[in-house]
Amino acid sequence: MKDSTVAPLAAEPVLRKSSAPAVQGRRGLFLKWLRKTHSWIGLWGALLGLMFGLTGFFQNHRAVMKIEAGSQQVTTLHLNLPSPAPENPAQLDAWLQQELKLPRPAERVQREKSRPVAWGDQSAVQPERWQLNFRAPNYMAQAEYWVGASQVNVRRVEPGIMGILENLHRANGVGVAWVLIADTIAGAMILLSLTGVLLWVGLNKRRAVGATIFGVSIVAALAVVNFTLG
Questions:
Q1: Using CA atoms, how far apart are residues 11 and 105, in angstroms rounded to an integer?
Q2: Which parts pass through the membrane (predicted)?
């Protein structure tokens, strides 16, 4: 008789789910989020970033590229002081703000004490002198007053459109709101740089080449800064 014993079946191998698809899915979601973040940051800083870029370019080459910044308008006023006259620069500052409708106090105040001066073979006492500088992106005003005089001289200079943009770039005479907006543009540039590098590394296989280019750019920038300061 034939042996009817049935040979046991071989155990089927246990299939394990690979974690590679899950990793690829998370990587794809991260890159998608990174692209959206990069694009929205660029949209926020597009207009002001263009302004900062253009004005920075013109300032870097102002000695070579004689770019016309627009004609300046200069106005000089001789204002009669109220009675009684201001007793100190702070009172004169407040009066000028009210009289000339200036939006903010003087940016800089100079006070020169009275002193004896020589005039040929004679000597005289020069009175005390006050000088107040007011600044905004669209104008610069300088008030000069000699203590005891009945008038104060005010000279106002209005730059052209390029001068206004350059003043905004350098934050000359601006308020807190503009400083905060400019800070967000600076932060946006930093984030654009970081997200751009991350996107390049995530979307390209030649990561070593990208890392090398990035490292060389940092070394070159530091070398130029060291050479300039040295």
A1: 89
A2: 40-58, 176-202, 208-229
